[in-house]
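<instruction>
Derive structure tokens from the sequence

<record> Sequence and structure tokens follow
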Amino acid sequence: MSCYLAALIPMSCYLAALILMSCYLAALIPMSCYLAALILMSCYLAALIPMSCCLAALTVNRRPAKDPDALLLS
């Protein structure tokens, strides 16, 4: 009987280790979701930079056309 009890102790340690491992794995899943969200956000931000450059170029190009003096000179 004591042999069975002595064998149960390491088994419970293994079970506890498995539960801890599953908790770590369950914690890794949301972490990977956060990382994926950060990567997506950085992609959106990287896409916004050329968009803002294009908008700035368009507004700079449009300003002289609206200027009445520029129309008179041309």
